[in-house]
Amino acid sequence: MASAKPGSRVLSDWRPEDPAFWAETGRPIARRNLWISVPNLLLAFAVWMVWSMVVAKLKLIGFQFTTEQLFWLTALPALSGATLRIFYSFMVPIFGGRLWTTLSTLSLLVPAIGIGVVVQDPSTPYAVFVGLALLCGLGGGNFASSMSNVSFFFPKAEKGNALALNAGFGNLGVSVMQFLVPVVVGLSMFAPLVGAPQTAVENGVESQVWLQNAAYVWVPFIVVSAVLAWFGMNDIASARASFAEQAVVFRRPHNWIMCWLYLGTFGSFLGFSAAFPLLTKTLFPEVNALQFAFLGPLVGAGSRALTGWVSDRFGGQHVTHWVFLALCAGVGAVLYSIGATGAEPSFAAFFASFMWLFFWTGVGNASTFQMIPAIVRSDMPRLMPTANPAARLKAAEMESAAIVGFTSAIGAFGGFFIPKAFGDSLKATGDPQMALLIFLGFYVSCVVVNWAFYARPSSMLDASRNTIAPETAA
Question: Crossing angle of helices 126-135/137-153, nearest 10°?
């Protein structure tokens, strides 16, 4: 049984790789922790990316910010979130998943309430908006600790799918936010408690909006989810480790290789999610981008959640190979849709191309995270040649969790670079072609790196099942 100390929720006996233990005791506990983790992570993504929708309304209600300043506001949460993930990656083994999930979720109240206050006053200095955009990164940091926490609960055979479900439904927070915000800002749902409406002027037409609702709508859900985490989640005693013990991953070359690949998958998902509404509004001003912006993150989150089993079945390295080839094709399609090849710009082609990109970033998010535990385990016999199988397994679990968190940190920087690249390209040349060509070159490099280290025949990973040699599987 998964025993715990009296009066606590600490699991002192946790053996997910033991089939009997897993079937009788482990699976229901792991699933409960997973499904409580999901809404907490979903809300973190919603708050993290909320600026992608708010910025599109600021000018309409009287804020005098430039387009470049608005792109900065969409990029800064990703910058701070990615930086915080570096530290959050190591928090679960130090503090425990239950406590850290509760605290990190409650921290989302700070930017949510702050944004709701400042958007009501057009005289608010831009520096205040910069500070709140950086604070939204608290939501971004949560992903690293959430994924690290979930990875401890599941056996290798189910880890890829569990991480895909947690991340996929968590990523869905971006889509939920982008769908819900245009609805709630048009409703006086919290009036008069949260302030008066603002007058928005768009194409000469006036309307009343409650832009503060874009932030305040998350507050009650944040409180409820944090309570659920505190009373419903568990800590695993064997998952405890100091920062020094986890910091060994910085000396692992595969940690840095996977950072590069995850930058191409999750970094693209996050960056496109942040930039898509404002980019669409800039290139196709006649289109109401806010009405359908949620579809891109929805496609990406859905493909991540629903395709984790594909990587478990066929090998994440092989799926990742096709992902980056598909992303190369998607960038080429976007270039065509904006007239870079001489064709007339087409919003329909632009929209379809981005949906293609979102889909494959989701698939790649699942496949790259599936690769990490397999890579670490397959490398353990070389790293610990004299250790017994149990010691190798424990070390592999600890390092896998740390690498999952750390790669998520590096990958999240894509959420900063992509909007910034689009903004810089538009400022320099009047179109996004320069940024898109840079993305294309990066995806080509990911194809080469993934093939050279993992997808080619006779690589360190099993070519058919993405598993490790029998003698190290114990």
Answer: 0
Q: Are 77 and 415 in contact (CB under 8 A)?
A: yes
| Residue 373: CB atoms within 10 Å | 25
For 10-142, list the strands marked E by DSSP. 10-11
Number of helical (H) and strand (E) elements in the chain, helices listed first = 21, 4
pLDDT digits (tens, 9 = 90+) for 1-36: 455 443 458 888 888 888 999 999 889 999 999 999
Mean pLDDT of 83-101: 84
Among 70, 81, 74, CA closest to 126: 70
Pairing of strands 235-236, 10-11: parallel
Separation of alpha carbons 193 and 197, rounded Å: 11
| Cβ atoms 274, 133 nearer than 8 A | no
**Helix extents (H) in 97-212:** 97-106, 109-118, 126-135, 137-153, 156-184
Residue 463: what pLDDT?
40
> Which domains are present in the chain?
10-472 (1.20.1250.20)
Cα 375 off chain centre by = 21
Rg of the chain taking only CA atoms, in angstroms: 22
Six token digits for residue 280: 């669409």
Q: What angle do CA 41, 46, 50 make, to 5 degrees?
A: 155
On the question of pLDDT at 290 being above 80, the answer is: no
What number of CA atoms fall less than 13 Å from residue 257's CA on the CB side? 16
Q: Which residues contact 243 (CB under 8 A, 6 or more apart)?
A: 90, 94
The separation between the first and the last C-alpha atoms of the chain, rounded to the nearest angstrom, is 20
- Total-model pTM: 0.73
144-177 pLDDT tens trace: 788 878 888 988 778 777 877 887 788 788 888 8
Closest of 269, 372, 359 to residue 316, by C-alpha: 372
Geometric angle at alpha carbon 178, from 410 and 345, rounded to 5° = 85
Query: How far is it, in rounded angstroms, from Cα 338 to Cα 335?
Result: 6
Phi and psi for 124 in degrees, rounded to 5? -60, 130
- Report helix, strand and coil shares of the chain as percent, to nearest 5: 75, 5, 25
Quote the tokens at residue 154.
């599941």
The token pair that represents 457 in the structure block? 């025949």
Interstrand relation of 205-209 and 198-202 (parallel, antiparallel or unpaired): antiparallel
Peptide bond into 192 cis (omega under 30): yes
